[in-house]
Amino acid sequence: MAIALRQPSVIPGFGITLGFTIFYLGLLIVIPIAGLLLYTLQMSWDDFWRAVSDRQVVASYKLSFGASLIAALINLVFGAIVAWVLVRYRFTGKRIVDALVDLPFAMPTAVAGIALVTLYASTGWVGQYLNVYGIRIAYTQIGVIVALTYIGLPFVVRTVQPVLEDLDKEAEEASAIMGANRFTTIRRVILPALLPALLTGFALAFARALGEYGSVIFISGNLPFRTEITPLLIVAKAEQFDYAGAAAIAAFLLLLLINGLQWWASRRYR
Amino acid sequence: MTTLNPALGSSSPAQTRPSAHAWHRATEEPAWLRRTLIGIALTFLTIFLVLPLTVVLYSAFEQGLRVWYEAIVEPDAAAAIRLTLLVVLVVVPVNLVFGVVAAWAIAKFEFRGKSLLITLIDLPFAISPVVVGLIFVILLGSQGWLGPWLASNEMRIIFAVPGIMLVIAFGTLPFVARELIPLMQQQGKEEEESSLTLGANGWQTFWRVTLPNIKWGLIYGVILCNARAMGEFGAVAVVSGRIRGETNTMPLHIEVLYNEYMFTAAFAVSSLLAALALVTIAVKSFVEWREERARTAQQN
């Protein structure tokens, strides 16, 4: 049967490798996710709606979406500048800077979380100077944005960088020959070419921020209605054995995320 | 004026030079803008990458090596480190085998449903860690679907080590596969086909032809998988039950210490994971540097 599904090849092992891949993915990924969705479908509509529309939960959606959006926008702007600088300019230590961009991918979120709250607390290295001007970051919504910016930082840089490296310099030269100044060339030639990569990086950073837990819960202080993110409420409900409530919110979040992923994929392959 | 229109200037060769200057001005940014952009980029990265890393290392060693060492060998911390190592010793090899097998099926064969399979492999990236934990609590917890059956067979998965392994396996499943699939697709299958035509069997071809080609990508995939497995937090927080000395992994132990205001100890344990993160990105740049060198060598 497998033979009919594939093109002929002399390379062995198709049946067993595909079989194992499907088996492992099915057992570890597909069945458990289907289980969560079935579990939510078992709930009555009233219970589901009560869980996802609770005032405290709605406040957390607002914070999670708003902070994720702002963090992804910050990463869009600064990520584009970082990618540009890393591809186009030469400066000492560039290799190390380039490598460091991946740090948020490799750093455990709990470590990032306690590092950020220590920096931005009113006695911290950064917080004490901001405190003089009355700016508070730790235990406020700004703190949530800071943490989400940290964990989303690599996405825009790493999606834009390869596109910028492959970008044809001839288009820029042609634009210059035809009399465009540098600003016009950047706006009319370079930016349109980078736009798909910028949007992809933005969407990835946003999706990652929406589900983030570890790096946020320390700096946010978790004040009900003010600095509680949605993933925190899922954990809180699970710890109180309110699995139905947690599952309803999780299914809500999951559906939104999968929609986001579809949006991203459709942009990517259009 | 002469700089912009050298053709109208005198015939001396020196006068034709400024056109290069005008050319640079039209295809490059002025020096002040270049310096400003580099400054903005470096400031942004210093605030968000260098400062958090520095504060971890500084706080860990602030009170001296001795205090750092005692925080690491303290029984609960040592138990957390042992548990974390045990978990990655099981999870990483399983996901390594899965990654190689999946990449072989996807890169070496053409079949229907391939893109769906790749989407499924990517799925753990798109799911919040806390949702991963919740999924397994609902399926296997004492009040979950399989809970009563597991209890009657005296098997404990949630609030025990197997549950921690499951959620970490879920979260780190894509790393090796995602590293190998593009690499193996790019390398094609001609080398394997010649090896097989020359009489080698499938295993010999894999060990002698494929594996040496993917060695560095594989090493990076494994190291990244390992770093993420050791650092996994949200999913483990839901399924572990946080039993001190028993089901606390290193990140959970860091949270416990932090919440008990034992900051130096929290940062001491954190410094081990931060060091692992640094090793991970160092290996990544090394692997990329090798690939770059191989590419330029091919072109010459």
Automatic annotation (TrEMBL), chain A:
Keywords: Membrane, Sulfate transport, Transmembrane, Transmembrane helix, Transport. The keyword Transmembrane helix applies. Gene3D superfamilies: MetI-like (1.10.3720.10). It comes from the Bacteria. NCBIfam families: 3a0106s02, permease_CysT. The complex is composed of two ATP-binding proteins (CysA), two transmembrane proteins (CysT and CysW) and a solute-binding protein (CysP). This is Sulfate transport system permease protein CysT.
From TrEMBL, chain B:
Residues 1-18 have a biased composition (Polar residues). One of its GO terms (cellular component) is plasma membrane. InterPro entries: CysW_permease, MetI-like, MetI-like_sf, Sulph_transpt2. Residues 81-284 form the ABC transmembrane type-1 domain. It is a multi-pass membrane protein. PANTHER family: SULFATE TRANSPORT SYSTEM PERMEASE PROTEIN, SULFATE TRANSPORT SYSTEM PERMEASE PROTEIN CYSW. This is Sulfate transport system permease protein CysW. The lineage of its organism: Bacteria, Pseudomonadati, Pseudomonadota, Betaproteobacteria, Rhodocyclales. The gene is cysW.
